Amino acid sequence: MRKGNKKSAKGKGVVVTAADRVFVGLDVHKRQIHAAVRMNGQEVGTHVLPARPAAVAKFLARYGAGLKHGVYEAGPTGYGLARHLRSAGVAVDVIAPSKTPQAPGDGAKSDRLDCRDLARLDEAGLLRPVAVPTEEEEADRQVIRLRDQAVQNRRRVRQRIKSFLLMHSLPEPRGLEHWSAAGVTTLGAMEVRNGRLRFCLDVLLEELANADETVAKIDHEMKQMAEEPRHAAAVKTLTDHVGVGRTTALPFETEMYRPERFSNERQVSAMLGLAPRVRQSGERQREGPLLKAGRGRLRTLLVEAAWVSPPTRPGGPEGVPAAGAEHRLATEGDRGDGAAFGVGFVAWTRKGAGGGLNRRRREATRTTTGR
Q1: pTM
Q2: pLDDT tens-place string over residues 279-300
Q3: Where are the domains of the chain?
């Protein structure tokens, strides 16, 4: 660490011109940022910086017009650093960690080595950036993800209540299978043989009520979000599909922001994790399980929406899967092949997602151009 700082101090006197090619790799953490600088194919040095966007921008400013690009990997620190550096005129991208090339058999790892690797790979053009959302886009997406967390928390509370009833041989009231209001009310009024057990059940029911209230509060915020001018047209376009409501349309809109960045349906499938894993060698080709990249919850919502409106005939409205996927789904289902039917259904979901995004892209183009 000290050795790297000493080497970096010597690099302060290096004169950088517009003809130079400077690339910077950043390894970003909560308290500090490690930076590696390469100039004209050679490493200049490594630095340890405070984890403040202004301090990083000041550090990069010394390389002036010679600074061609900077990168750091996506992680828990978010996109605030990238937005700040871009506003300061620095060309910086956030890199997908899963797409970063890894040297085989290289067991050594440290923050200093990581930033050096990023700078070297960036200079060679081997890194794949991800889209950096605006602060507004990220805030919208956070609301959707907060709802997912709240729903998961409510599911865990419900499971704890059922486990409590089973452990203490307490009867499960009617309606609790689907957690109806009548079932929960009956559970609250149910006689329990032990006062301590009654206390524990009441605490669990209070926790469930708080979880329900949290989900309802977030649903209200999502309803207001869907009615805002910047989301209303997209939500209307997406909910034109049978089986797609606001709960599915808004996550699709916020996670798949800026539809113009997708040039074809294959990119959409890869982003959603609906593309099959392909193994091809010579004339042999085999499609394996799904890659399952991206947001798993969004993929689940799309499959659930597809189940609501399975295909019944070839063709159909714009954005609905083509006859090939419909025929595959129908024939596999008729044969009773559950696995093949699942594959066909994912194909139907994939086609529907791609078609929906195409409609969303055209809607955005009309909004921008007025045509």
Answers
A1: 0.76
A2: 888 888 877 777 777 777 888 8
A3: 2-130, 135-226, 242-369
